[in-house]
């Protein structure tokens, strides 16, 4: 069928709440290096950075190993798709122009090897939290984005990184709530409604929730939540016939 297509999300690189962030970035880069000759495309489904904000002549410090590896892959002809999440909304051309990424600001439906995929970070899809919905609307507002970029980059980055740190430390052990069940997970509920009017979709893939979930829906479509690259190091791979959810453990893949 050809080369594989890979999907991963939620590395939150640069997080002030993580002590192992340099190790984490290196592990992610080693994984990308291990697949670069096997990949037709890589889909990064959001929040790969804990906070990313570009200014006209300034981009965030760090991430050189990660951005360099992505640039190497696009130079090799690998398609690398980057979906903004709720932590890395503020990208204005650098990732496309300097690294060759294809940036998506909204969910997409795309055909891959004859199968229909619905791909999204997952934030804003059925989430009932009114505070989160208000913040999301504010973060996506162009006027608010311009106001943020009136700040000196140091202040803007400190504001964003400390906001992200506070958000993570509010959770027990800095981790997401475990799977709540099909009747309570907002992404599951949203997907079940969406598929009623879009029955041709074969696979729904999301990030955002930081849990591993592989669920077969009544329509026989599969819904996958990709876990994360903070603690789990999980990803999905599609070989043209089968979609697998796997874990990267230093040089080998575990189903």
Radius of gyration: 18 Å
- Secondary structure category: alpha/beta
Q: What ranges have pLDDT less than 50 throughout 5 or more consecutive residues?
A: none
Q: Which geometry do the CA atoms define?
A: globular
Mean pLDDT: 85
Strand content: 15-25%
| Largest sheet geometry | 7 strands, mixed
Helix content: 25-40%
DSSP helical segment count: 7
Distance between the termini: 21 Å
Order of SSEs, N→C? EHEHEHEEEHHHHEEEEEE
Oligomer: single chain
Number of strands: 12
Describe it for me?
The mean pLDDT is 85. The two termini are 21 Å apart. This protein is 31% helix and 23% strand. The protein is an alpha/beta fold.
Question: Which features characterize this protein?
Answer:
255 residues; alpha/beta; seven-stranded mixed beta sheet; five-stranded mixed beta sheet; 7 helices; 31% helix; globular
């Amino acid at each position: 069928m050809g080369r594989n297509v890979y999907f991963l999300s939620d590395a939150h690189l640069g997080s002030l709440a993580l002590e192992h962030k340099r190790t984490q970035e290196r592990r992610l880069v080693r994984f990308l290096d291990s697949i670069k000759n096997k990949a037709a495309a890589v889909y990064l489904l959001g929040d790969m950075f804990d906070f990313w904000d570009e200014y006209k002549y300034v981009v965030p410090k760090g991430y050189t190993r990660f951005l360099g590896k992505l640039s190497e892959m696009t130079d090799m002809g690998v398609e690398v798709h980057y979906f903004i999440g709720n932590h890395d909304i503020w990208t204005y051309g650098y990732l496309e122009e300097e690294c060759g990424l294809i940036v998506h600001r909204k969910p997409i439906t795309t055909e891959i090897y004859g199968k229909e995929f619905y791909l999204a970070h997952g934030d804003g899809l059925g989430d009932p939290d009114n505070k989160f919905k208000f913040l999301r609307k504010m973060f996506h507002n162009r006027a608010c984005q311009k106001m943020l970029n009136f700040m000196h980059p140091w202040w803007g980055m400190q504001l964003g990184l400390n906001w992200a740190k506070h958000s993570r430390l509010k959770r027990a052990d800095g981790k997401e709530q475990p799977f709540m069940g099909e009747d309570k997970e907002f992404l599951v509920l949203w997907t079940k409604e969406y598929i009623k009017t879009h029955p041709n979709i074969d696979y729904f893939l999301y990030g955002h929730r930081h849990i591993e979930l592989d669920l077969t829906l009544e329509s026989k479509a599969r819904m996958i939540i990709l876990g994360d690259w903070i603690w789990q190091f999980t990803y999905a791979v599609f070989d043209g016939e089968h979609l697998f959810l796997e874990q990267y453990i230093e040089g080998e893949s575990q189903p």
